[in-house]
Every structure is written in structure tokens, then in C-alpha cells.
Amino acid sequence: MNDPMPSGVFRFLPIDRVAFGAAAVRQLPGELDRRGLQRAMVITGETVANRTNLLWYIEQLLGPRHAATYTSARQHVPSATVAEAVDLARESGADCLVSLGGGSPIDTTKAVAHTLAFGESAPADLGVAPGGRRDGPAPPPHFAVPTTLSAGEFTHVAGVTDEESRIKGAVGEPRLAPCVVFLDPQMTIATPGPLWLSTGIKALDHAVECFLSPHHQPVTDALALEAVRLLFTYLPRSAADPADLAPRMQCQIAAWMSLFSPASVRGGLSHALGHQIGARCDVPHGVTSCITLAPVMRFLAPVSAARQALLAHAMSMDGDQGGSAAPTVAAADAVAALVRRLDLPATLRDAGVDERAIDGIARAAYHEAATRPTLRPITDLAELTALLHSMW
After folding, report:
1. Alpha-carbon distance 31 to 322, whole Å?
2. DSSP per position, 273-320
3. How distant, in Å, are the alpha carbons of 108, 246, 265, 297 from that of 208?
4. 325 and 334 in contact (C-beta within 8 Å)?
5. 249: closest CA among 19, 47, 17?
6. Integer Cα distance of 92 and 229 in angstroms
């Protein structure tokens, strides 16, 4: 019997460079100079700005290139914060943007760049797969300095939440991807432990859903499996000794591998649920992955047994992570065990979500969940509601 012949199209994003390693962020000034950029606006959140010295360090690195700083980026990217940052960028005459922090500042920066280039536009439904190239001027260059493992720095899409409806949509365009990403483990030391670890599970969510996607590709398959192996190996080690830079660097590499090209392979059902759980119930997206990933893997197990067996193998460092579980659920059990081992929230109840909110979450998530690429499509709202109840 002949093996199937792979076919498809792989779409690269215009990320020019990824600088990685201790002190990698020191290359930031040179990258601006290389492009003739002179007025950088930094976008970050209040925690990074007020409880760490990271913002001071970046502003010192930029020196006379520093034009302004916006410090009110918030999780789930409320649309009002995007508007505020756009106004500051225009007032300061910024010719480039530097994001500093986790997924929220990074997505805020992409949304700001989108508005500066293309004007005001309502976020599209996340199920629509935004991201086609638009006419008009290029967005301002974006330089990303991540401090978590959410991997938003490797995408061209930004989730934005409508404060009135509490529904999360998205803006997207290939040129919104940062032109340079700096993976510097020294910039992550001040990240709170639960945030670091939960975004590590978010990276795991990226890798697993990429591998289980009906649109998976050879390149992303290899990188997803290696990302899974690295995260199962080094995320616990980074928890055991947060000051050790080596495990943190390996986790950053894993996050990069987990989301190598979202222009080619998108996240699936776990991502769709996480978007709306987060926006409606104010649950951080790292935590939503802790809650949704294992149940979604069990939901997909009947149609993905062979691929989940490969995932289970990648998760095994010291024997069978799945214990005596059947091969179809061993990988999901290993994910659940890792979440427990890291002492992270594992259920909606653990995250403070009222069970009465589940129906609203299901309605908000249904369209995206039904249109996301998945091996086992959601057929009706009742099925999705039942899956969410299993997470409570």
C-alpha cells in the first residue's frame, strides 16, 4: 500500500527575523536603525509598566528613538484601548511600534497598526479567518518583545473585544505580523509564575490543534510535535527553578514552533471556545486553554486516534504519560495531568465561571466553533453547550 502524497500550499508570514537567546533584545536599536526608523512608540500593560523595570529598560535601549509609550493595554483587547493608542501614535508621530508584554499588548499593537494603515474597521467574526492582504499603505513596522508564551507575536491577526456585546472579533492582514521578534528569556523573569505557565499551556494548545487540524502540513506537523515535546520537558523545569534561563528559552522556542504559520494552519475548537470564554467571563487566554484543550481532545479522539497516539508519544519523557488509558485518550489525559501538575485551573468552575453563563458562552462561540477547521465539526448548539458543561 502506497503512502499518501502530501499536497497543499504553505503561506509564510513576513516576519523578517527572530532574534533569540539571552540579551537578544539588545538588538532592538540596531533593527530600527537598519530600517531608518526614528520614532518608536511602545505599547504595554500596566503591570509591566508599574511593577517591573522592563519598560524603563526598553525606553533606555531606544534612547532618542523613543517617541511615546502607551501603558493601558488590557487582556482581550477592548476596542477603546485600541482607539486610545491610535490617538497617541498619531500625536507622537510614531513611525514604528514596539510591543512589550504578553498576548494582549501584542494584539493591541497589531490592532493599532491595522487602524493606522487602513482606518477604522469593525472586527470580523473570528470564524471568518481574517487576514487577506488589503490595498493601501503598509502598516507601521512592529517589533515584538514577548514576556509570556502566548505566541501572539507570530500571528498576523489580532483579537479585539466589543465592550458592549462582549463578543471577540478580529482584524487581520499578513503585514500585521511583527517584522522582528525578540525571544529573550531575561525579559520573562518578572512574568508571574501562573501567567508564564498558563501561557505555556496556550502554546501547547496551538501545537496540538495545529497537529489535529484537517489542514495540517508536513512542516507544521514536525514543529508541532517538537513543540509538544519541549513544553512537556521544560515547562515543569521552568516552574521548578524560575531563575534558570535555559528552560525558559526552550519554552520560548517551543512557543515559536507551536504557531509557526497561522496563515497556513489555524487553531480549532479549543481556540474558538477560549476566545469567547475569555471575552465574556474575563478569563485569561492561557487559563482558557488549561480548561478547554483536554476536553476538546477527548471530543476529537474518535476521529483522530492515530494522530493523538503520535501526540501521546511526544508527551512521554519518563514512560507513558497516559498511564493505562486507551491510546485514543492518552494524550488528553497527559494534558490534563500536566495542568494539574502545574497547579493551574482545570475547569470553568476553577476559573470562577458561573455554570449559568455556559449557555451564553455557547451562543457567542457557536458560529466560530462551527466554522473553525476541525476533524469533528460541531453540528448544533446543543452539542456545543454539552461540551462546555463537561468543562465545568
Report:
1. 45
2. HHHHHHHHHT--HHHHHHHHHHHHHHHHGGG-HHHHHHHHHHH-SSS-
3. 26, 24, 11, 9
4. no
5. 19
6. 44
Residue with the bigger pLDDT between 76 and 277: it is 277
Alpha carbons 97 and 56: distance in angstroms, whole number: 16
Q: What is the dihedral of CA 278, 282, 283, 285, to 10 degrees?
A: 50
Model confidence pTM above 0.85: yes
Q: What is the 3-state secondary structure (H, E, C) of 13-38?
A: CCCCEEEECCCHHHHHHHHHHHCCCC
CA–CA dist 39, 113 (Å, integer): 14
Q: Express each pLDDT in 266-281 by its tens digit.
A: 889 999 999 899 988 9
Enumerate the β-bridge partners of residue 279.
none
Grid cell, residue 59, equals: 525606553
Task: Read off the C-alpha cell for 157.
Answer: 491577526
pLDDT tens digits along 114-168: 999 988 766 665 555 555 666 678 999 999 999 999 999 999 999 888 877 777 7
For cell 500536566, name the residue: 338
pLDDT at 65 over 90: yes
Helices (H) and strands (E) in the chain, counts: 14, 9
